[in-house]
Amino acid sequence: MRIYDVIDKKRRGVELTNEEIQFFIDGYMSGAVSDYQAAALIMAICINGMTEKETTALTMSMANSGEKADMSVFGELSVDKHSTGGVGDKTSLIVAPIVASLGCKVAKMSGRGLGHTGGTVDKLESIPGYKIALSTADFFAQVNELGMAIVGQSGNFAPADKKLYALRDVTATVESIPLISSSIMSKKLAAGAKSIVLDVKFGRGAFMHTPEEAEILASNMVRIGRNCGRRMSAVITDMNSPLGYAIGNSLEVKEAIDVLRGESYGDLREICIVLASEMIALVKNISYEESRALVSEAIDSGKAYEKMKEWIAVQGGDVSYIVDSSLFPESSIKVNVYAEKTGYIVSLDAQKIGFISVMLGAGRLLKDDPIDYSAGIMMKKKTGDFVREGEIIAVLHTNKHDAVNDAVKEYLSAVTIIGRQTSLAKSPLVYKTIR
Ligand code: URA
Fold first, then answer.
1. Domains (ranges, CATH) in the chain?
2. What global pTM score does this model have?
3. Which of 5, 195, 266, 426 could form a Cys-Cys staple with 282, CB 3.0–4.6 A?
């Protein structure tokens, strides 16, 4: 077989065989296929698409390119969730303890922030002492005893995706549904859980801009997972506005604690209940309604909050910060942002707001930049809220004096307020669920 012929075939729009796809991944990993040949092939895939059979074969070849976690010791109980990334998305910190408190096994590998989106690993590292790296033996032992562990993504899982992702990033081939599907699902399959719930986001702060595109991506990933023997569901959710009120690492941890203590309501709590209910429904093979009742009880009884405390303590974190979240260090500068006019907030640009939090120090501009865990944004008003001119709509937290003026200006440009007579129908948080 020659890679030249495989590229030529895909360029002509002909379906590739499983063997040809495996040949490409093997060759790319060994160095027999060069970056420029791989770039040509992925551009042909981007333009001509892939059939379901091809996408499944590509996903499996990438999943098999490195280490794979064997969760068979947990039988049907292992469950994972994946979000396609957003702003203010701290759902893993809330959903994992809820699901573990109900007897499931969550062995989760999470990432760091990327661009304007935050990462679970950075959020957890804002808790003093929390160990993001565990040996495989300790990771499995903790999941077995406690029901959950969250660690950083190991580079040994789906290394073919790591290599291809870096190539896609610089060849304008990120936005391809078969390539995104196989990238995400190869990592999820290698991570080994029997049941997987996907939170596929659409809107200004997401990879997919419309609900229709998000639905195609979600259906694709659900089918791939099922073809590979996993129980799958996907929730398609709105990421036009940030999720919850807090953006930034320790600010988000504090908000997650509030949700688990039953002290915070609104979009964040609702999305967490939806995701946790989908996970429990898959694992226990019960209806969504039955599952939702269990999840609500786990929060209301304090069971999920107790699980969070146990988890943080077992993974080395100082649990006194969870019990008293005022212990988290605060930024030296807090600046109010005031509404420029009276009316309804009709939009809050999630992507812009994500970048503002990076400017304030909550994310990285360069790969190895340090993070200021205390920096970020506390939103006071969200889309659909009525505000009066001069009212506080957000508080910016930072230790960077020179970032403040631009950040305030940018925040005001991310908010659209329209006249006082206009009332708003809020768009639903969950557009659709694919079961
Ligand atoms: N996240 C991934 O892991 N891969 C993609 O291609 C896009 C989002």
1. 3-49 (1.20.970.10), 72-155+174-323 (3.40.1030.10), 330-423 (3.90.1170.30)
2. 0.92
3. 195
